[in-house]
Amino acid sequence: MRRHILLKHSKEEEVKQASNLSKGDLDQFFEQIRKAGILKYNKEEMRKEKPMYERKRAPSRAASVSSTEEIVICGKCNGTYAIQFFGRHKKLCIGESAYVPKALPINLLKDSINEVSRP
């Protein structure tokens, strides 16, 4: 994904500024871009009758059809995770912050998207 962004979006201002970042900051930048892309994709999927949600890690083949009850969005970083991995993410996301991330069910976001799109 890094290569794609650096090659295909090199003219964008954010990407130009990212080239001056240190390794750690660059990793954080690409992680933020990834989360924003997944969230954007999931918002588009919510409008469909049978959405196929994306998340950071792909589900195993046995659980390839993901239930909407199994997917949550982090209230702090907007990352999309399977509910069983959210506890692990929460420890990483909290970092040195005083804000404790909350798991928001994807259905909650779906309801708000549907209310906005109604005439």
Notes on the protein architecture:
It is globular and about 40 Å long. It has one domain (2-117). The protein has helices at 2-8, 13-18, 23-45, 83-94, 106-117, and strands at 71-74, 80-82, 103-105. Strand 1 (71-74) and strand 2 form a beta hairpin. With 119 residues, it is mainly α. Strands 2-1-3 form a 3-stranded antiparallel sheet.
Q: Report the mean per-residue pLDDT as an integer.
A: 81
- Count of discrete structural domains: 1
Tally of separate helices: 5
Mind describing the biggest β-sheet?
3 strands, antiparallel
How far apart are the termini? 37 Å
Instruction: Spell out the helices and strands N to C.
Output: HHHEEHEH
Envelope shape: globular
In what order do the strands lie side by side in the largest sheet?
2-1-3
Q: What fraction, in percent, of the residue positions are helical?
A: 40-55%
| Class derived from helix and strand content | mainly alpha
Q: What's the number of extended β-strand segments?
A: 3
Low-confidence stretches: none
Roughly how many Å is the radius of gyration? 16 Å
| Beta strand % | 5-15%
List the topology elements.
Elements (H helix, E strand, L loop, with lengths): L1 H7 L4 H6 L4 H23 L25 E4 L5 E3 H12 L8 E3 H12 L2
Describe this protein with a few key phrases.
119 residues, mainly alpha, three-stranded antiparallel sheet, 5 helices, 3 strands, 50% helix, globular
In short:
The protein has helices at residues 2-8, 13-18, 23-45, 83-94, 106-117, and strands at 71-74, 80-82, 103-105. With 119 residues, the protein is mainly alpha-helical.
